[in-house]
């Protein structure tokens, strides 16, 4: 579940979730260089420990005696009316007494099937997140009672000093919208000056939350920002860096700002404003999903480091909090397109992941970033990097020689370029040269999801598979993609199904005009919003491509509205309007016009649908409806569907991931043009 080191690196805490007699058991292990010195069972007291990009990871205090984290409250045992627990009484009088006692506790009897909201895709079980502190000396777990959990969901907690806590609080709304890959959820930064604890035991773990001293809670960003993310305390314990946005945008992803809060007086300094490009030629704004939204401090507490998605690549930047000067680190060399992400910083050495389209990702460690290097005009020129670990692929039945030949072909037989056409639309081309022994002359046109995501230059297993089998790949960043400025991102609102489709069509026209491919040698491919665009193109331009593959596509906005955990997305993308639960005929008409299914009868080319049966983001009803509609229009040979039980939107379980990749290749190979 989690592995965290103490500030001195002399202690490690490992939290494990294991199966025992059919039940999940949660353990906390304390380790030193001498070995495991303590094991504590947590599963009697809490349901789960959260250690992810949305809720943060467990953090030590300065004394290394306490650990703060977000976990799931232990649910109370409930019964349904069918259980009739009082029937076990020995005689009729005992039955009456027991029945009366149980009915007096009506909040537990009959509550088994009461609906409780969770947080949607990938967070099905998240219903009652709470803030906990674990005492490593006593082995006691305490619930922080100062927070009003009816209004705030805690996330990213840490100790700002020996006693004070700082954290991000997500603001509870009437409806719990999905949070995965959705940055536009209202939140703020809070401090708790004197955390009060309710020590948990087996007996009281499921009781209602105790109410502590709420006056110890301070809303730090009240009036400054509507969204705050990923707070990070400086090494000198005087400052708190965080990402923010003043308003709540309609789209799920957008440019963030970076600010620094004084823990002494609460004043806030804006370092990078949202959407402001800040001078560096490769910085288009702070863009990224939750796994990328993180800031790292230099030991001097004068510099910040972060990664941002810009122009389809991930870049690393250094930010001087005094001068607000922004400088790029780990720059691309010799014109080779590359992506870099920060994993951690220790002793002022950056640990980064470096990735290229034609090379496996590797870990690199920087030299120590002295203050002299940080203050240099171009610090990147003074930093040396050491490659620590290069990822390998362990494929059964594949020799090292065969693996090496695959990556030799990527290096020698594939040409990678970036292109820009009208309206700033960008695309990457990964073209197989004539020297490639498996070149087949066909092109896979890949449309990313989001739509506020991006097709990256980063290494991709699926892209490597396509290239190894001789396919060209073209990845498009249509208007609405992130990393090309905030205006480029927001312009798609209200125009889904038109502007993004037009951009994809324009890129296809461009690559056909450049003789990269032709319609009878073109395949359409995409997931989520990329699947939406795949079905749109097949519907609007029946002869544009040879075949298509769509993973969990949005095909019908109207049915999607009532089934998804992101209903506000439907209104934002189709009409640039707010969420309403009572859509008018005019609104429904807008949703219909934005839906591929309105022209389903026009489809003539083969389509493979890949559906995660437990998808909460785009419930499979959408894909099934498109499938049934094609069948209804007597297109039995046009559509084929593969369904993956108990998997979600990304379809990432090992067995299913292999199946989606190989079935996609099989589908395209089956429909290769013979001309």
Fraction of residues in H or I helices: 10-25%
Uncertain segments are none
Please list the strands of the largest sheet in the order they lie side by side: 27-28-30-29-31-32-33-34
Which oligomeric state applies?
Answer: single chain
The count of DSSP E runs of length 2 or more, i.e. the number of strands, is: 34
Structural class: alpha+beta
Mean pLDDT: 91
Short description:
With 675 residues, the chain is an alpha+beta fold. 19% of the residues lie in helices and 31% in strands. The protein has twelve helices and 34 strands.
Task: Provide a descriptive summary of the structure in words.
The chain is α+β, with helices and mostly antiparallel strands. The chain is built from 12 helices and 34 strands. The longest helix is centred in the last third of the chain and has 17 residues, at 654-670. The mean pLDDT is 91.
Map the helices and strands.
Elements: E1 2-5, E2 12-20, E3 23-32, E4 35-41, E5 46-50, E6 59-60, E7 66-73, H1 92-104, E8 129-135, E9 140-144, E10 152-159, E11 165-171, E12 187-192, E13 197-199, E14 217-219, E15 227-233, E16 239-245, E17 257-262, E18 268-272, E19 296-297, E20 303-310, E21 313-320, E22 326-329, E23 339-346, E24 349-356, E25 359-366, H2 371-375, E26 385-390, H3 400-413, E27 414-420, E28 426-432, E29 443-447, H4 461-468, E30 472-477, H5 486-490, H6 499-513, E31 522-527, H7 529-540, E32 547-551, H8 557-563, H9 567-575, H10 585-593, E33 607-612, H11 621-632, E34 639-644, H12 654-670
Parallel strand pairs: 29-30, 29-31, 31-32, 32-33, 33-34
Antiparallel strand pairs: 1-2, 2-3, 3-4, 5-7, 6-7, 7-8, 8-9, 9-13, 10-11, 11-12, 12-14, 15-16, 16-17, 17-18, 19-20, 20-21, 21-22, 23-24, 24-25, 25-26, 27-28, 28-30
């Amino acid at each position: 579940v989690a592995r965290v080191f103490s500030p001195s690196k002399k202690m490690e805490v490992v939290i494990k979730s294991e199966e025992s007699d059919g039940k999940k058991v949660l353990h906390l292990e304390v380790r030193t260089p001498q070995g495991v010195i303590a094991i504590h069972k947590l599963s009697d007291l809490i349901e789960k420990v959260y250690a992810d990009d949305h809720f943060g990871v467990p953090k030590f205090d300065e004394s290394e005696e306490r650990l703060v984290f977000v976990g799931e409250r232990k649910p109370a045992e409930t019964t349904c009316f069918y259980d009739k627990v009082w029937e076990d009484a020995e005689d009729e009088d005992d039955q009456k007494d027991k029945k009366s006692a149980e009915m007096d506790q009506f909040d537990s009897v009959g509550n088994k099937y009461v609906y409780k909201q969770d947080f949607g895709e990938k967070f099905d079980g998240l219903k009652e997140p709470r803030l906990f502190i674990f005492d490593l000396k006593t082995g006691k777990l305490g619930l922080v009672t100062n927070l009003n959990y009816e209004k705030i969901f805690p996330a990213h907690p840490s100790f700002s000093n020996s006693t004070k806590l700082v954290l991000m609080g997500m603001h509870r709304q009437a409806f719990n919208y999905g949070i995965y890959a959705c940055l536009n959820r209202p939140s703020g930064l809070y401090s708790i000056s004197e955390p009060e604890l309710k020590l948990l035991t087996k007996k009281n773990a499921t009781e209602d939350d105790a109410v502590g001293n709420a006056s110890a809670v301070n809303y730090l960003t009240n009036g400054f920002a509507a969204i705050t993310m990923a707070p990070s305390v400086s090494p000198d314990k005087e400052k708190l860096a965080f990402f923010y946005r003043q308003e709540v945008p309609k789209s799920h992803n957008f440019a963030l700002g970076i600010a620094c809060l004084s823990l002494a007086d609460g004043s806030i300094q804006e370092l990078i404003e949202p959407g402001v490009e800040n001078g560096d030629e490769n910085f288009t704004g702070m863009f990224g999903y939750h796994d990328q939204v993180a800031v790292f401090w230099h030991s001097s507490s004068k510099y910040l480091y972060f990664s941002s998605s810009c122009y389809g690549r991930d870049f690393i930047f250094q930010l001087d909090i005094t001068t607000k000067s922004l400088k790029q680190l780990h720059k691309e060399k010799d014109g080779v397109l590359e992506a870099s992400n920060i994993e951690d910083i220790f002793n002022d050495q950056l640990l980064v992941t470096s990735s290229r389209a034609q090379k496996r990702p590797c870990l690199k460690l920087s030299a120590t970033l002295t203050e002299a290097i940080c203050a240099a005009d171009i610090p990147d020129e003074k930093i040396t990097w050491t490659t620590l670990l290069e990822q390998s692929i362990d494929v059964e039945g594949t020799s090292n020689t065969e693996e090496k030949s695959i990556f030799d072909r990527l290096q020698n037989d594939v040409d990678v370029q970036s292109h820009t056409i009208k309206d700033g639309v960008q695309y990457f081309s990964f073209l197989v040269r004539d020297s490639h022994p498996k070149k087949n002359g066909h092109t896979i046109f890949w449309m990313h999801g989001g739509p506020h995501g991006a097709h990256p230059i980063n290494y991709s297993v699926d892209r490597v598979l396509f290239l190894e089998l001789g396919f060209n790949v073209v990845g498009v960043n249509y208007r609405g993609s992130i990393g090309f400025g905030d205006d480029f991102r927001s312009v798609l609102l209200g125009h889904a199904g038109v502007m993004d489709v037009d951009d994809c069509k324009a890129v296809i026209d461009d690559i056909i005009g450049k003789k990269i491919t032709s319609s009878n040698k073109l395949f359409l491919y995409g997931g989520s919003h990329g699947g939406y665009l795949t079905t749109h193109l097949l519907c609007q331009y029946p002869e544009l491509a040879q075949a298509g593959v769509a993973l969990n596509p949005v095909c019908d906005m109207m049915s999607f509205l009532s089934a998804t955990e992101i209903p506000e997305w439907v209104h934002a993308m189709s009409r640039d309007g707010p969420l309403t639960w009572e859509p008018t005929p005019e609104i429904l008409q807008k949703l219909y016009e934005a839906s591929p299914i309105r022209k389903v009868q026009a489809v003539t080319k083969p389509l493979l649908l890949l559906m995660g049966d437990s998808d909460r983001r785009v419930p499979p009803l959408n894909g099934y409806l498109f499938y049934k509609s094609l069948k209804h229009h007597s297109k039995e040979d046009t559509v084929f569907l593969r369904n993956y039980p108990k998997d979600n939107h990304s379809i990432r379980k090992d067995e299913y991931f292999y199946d989606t990749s190989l079935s996609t290749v099989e589908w395209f190979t089956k429909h290769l043009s013979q001309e």
